[in-house]
Every structure is written in C-alpha cells, then in structure tokens.
Amino acid sequence: MKQEETVGDLDQSVGYVLKQVQASLHAAMDEVLRPLGLTVAQYACLELLGQHPGLSNSELARHAFVTRQSMNVVLRRLQERGLLTRPAHADHGRALPTELTQAGQSTLRTASVAARAVERQIFAPLSQERQHRLHEDLAACAAAAGAPQP
Amino acid sequence: MKQEETVGDLDQSVGYVLKQVQASLHAAMDEVLRPLGLTVAQYACLELLGQHPGLSNSELARHAFVTRQSMNVVLRRLQERGLLTRPAHADHGRALPTELTQAGQSTLRTASVAARAVERQIFAPLSQERQHRLHEDLAACAAAAGAPQP
DNA sequence: CCTCCTATGTCAGGGAACTGACATAGGAGG
DNA sequence: CCTCCTATGTCAGTTCCCTGACATAGGAGG
User: Fold this and answer.
1) Is B124 left (phi over 0), alpha (psi -120 to 50) or beta?
2) What digits encode the pLDDT tens for the residues B40-62?
3) Which residues 6+ apart lie within 8 Å of B122 measured at CB?
4) Are A55 and A84 in contact (CB under 8 A)?
5) Nearest residue of B to residue A46, measured between CA atoms
6) Nucleotide at minimal C1' distance from the A39 CA
C-alpha cells in the first residue's frame, strides 16, 4: 500500500486541496465540539448570533451556507436546550430576531475557544504573513463568486 | 436589510472564508454536473479512477474524503449505469480494483471539461502567481493535517 | 385600492452521508 | 502452526441536509 505514490494529478487542482483542507478542518472541529454536545452547524449558528445578535432564521442560513429549512431545525434544537430565544411572532414582518441566552453565551465562549484553537492548529504550517495572504486571496474569490451577476 | 453591514468578525476567520469558497465551488460544480446526471461525489470518483485506474473502494473513499460505506453506494450506482467495472471477487486480498469502461471514460471527459471550467472561473480573481501560492499554502496545511501523529 | 412580487417561516418527503456492527483475507509475531 | 491485528467489503439504522410546496407579511406599481 504505497502512501507516497508520487501524488496524482488531482493534487494539482486548487479545488481539490481546498476540499481537502476544508474536510480536515471540519473533522477536527467536529471532534472538539462533539464532547460539548454541539455539531459544527450548531456552533456556527451560536457564533453568528454572538457576533450579530438579532439575526433571523433566513439570515443565519445564508451566513452559514445552508438552507433556511436546515437552519430552522438547528434553531429549534438550540431553543429547546435553552441556548437562545425567539419571539413567538414578529412585530414587523415575518422575520423572527434571534438572540442568545446567558446559557447560550456561556456555551459559545467555551466552544469558541476550542474552535479557534483548532483553526490555529490547522493553519499553523503557515507564517502569520502567509495566513494573511491566504485570507485575502480566499476573500477575493468568495466576493467574486457571491455577486457575479452585475 | 443591510447587506454591507461592515462585514462581521467571522469574516476575519480564515476557516470561515475557506468554507465560503468551498461552498461556492461545490454549488457551482453541482450546477454544471447535474445536467450530466452526475453528483459531485460521483464526478470525484470518476476523476480519481481516470487518473489512478485500479483503485479499490476504500482507497477511493479516502481520496474523496468520505467513508467507504458512502463510496460503496456511489460505486454501485456508477456500476449499474455501466460507467465502471469491478471484479466479483478479488484474486489477492479483499480489495476490488475498479476501472472505468469506455462509457465511463467518455462521461468523465465531458464532466472534467465542465468541472475545470468552473474551477478556473472561481479562482479567476487571482493572478496565476497568486493561484500558485494559494495552492502551495493549502497543500502545506493539508499535508500537516494528514499526518500529525509522528 | 388592488394587484403582483419578494421574503420569510414552516411542513412533508427524499437523498446522501455517517456510525455501528459483522464476516473475511492477509500479514506479523510468538 | 496458531494467534492477534489490520484492512476491506458489506448490511442495517440513524442523522443531517436538501428539494418541493404552502401560507403569510410587507412593499412596488398601476
């Protein structure tokens, strides 16, 4: 079973190594979040709410790159656990502004520490300067892919 | 509904923008592959077999970042469609070496052209030099994440 | 005022991935 | 030779996410 079999042509694809790093990151995040009783999607939801309180279900879904139906079940589970609150009905429109409870903020703090440690470790092979460049390059691609219509 | 709300702190996370680009790439790939009757996972399987004929189910699963159970159903569907062949039982060991049929190679060529066009477009905002740097940096992270045990 | 049009929340169903478990083939070590 | 140990293929069950559909709230335009 050769492991060092002169890395195939697929490793020459930027998209392939991108997927590879993303898979590693997701697996490592899942490993540290599972003991806390959180999935990666649930953590993403908490982190978004911690930094942008009052986001609605649909807005959270867009920022987490899932459908609003999927985010809906995430929100309901977190609400059952008392980590966040949603008004029963909106005052203006249909959007229900969501906010973290005290327990939610506490859980978020613990999870955020673990998650950021994982991220730091994944990108450790790169110097601070290279990490910054990587961030810039990825952000440029994301911005272009997000609005190619105009 | 402010869209330009001074981009939150999460956009400062490398892992977040990484996920963002990966989601965009996956969505764009799915869009061009679906008319060909292929999912992204099925295309990845064909591409791997095109570049490394004779890979087994487990080896394909590792290179595609899924479990062997998931890859198993992918292989079975592709085999039903006559795009690849697997011996009924292995001569040596239990690994079943898989290979593409003529139809499989033909389908792969069409899909590969579309997929590489998508990838080229996603990373178009970056110069050739920056794309090369991006590839190097991601590969370094992937290599470090793949073997952190020693 | 009335009519589209979009956005949002929600329900129902299906697909794709994962975890857990089992049996088997080959090699390593005593 | 016999005993672990690992790797592989496969079956069963569960969980997560997606697509499709519906009802509703607010705004745009005639």
Assistant:
1) alpha
2) 999 999 999 999 999 999 999 99
3) A15, A141, A144, A145, B21, B24, B25, B28
4) no
5) B10
6) D16
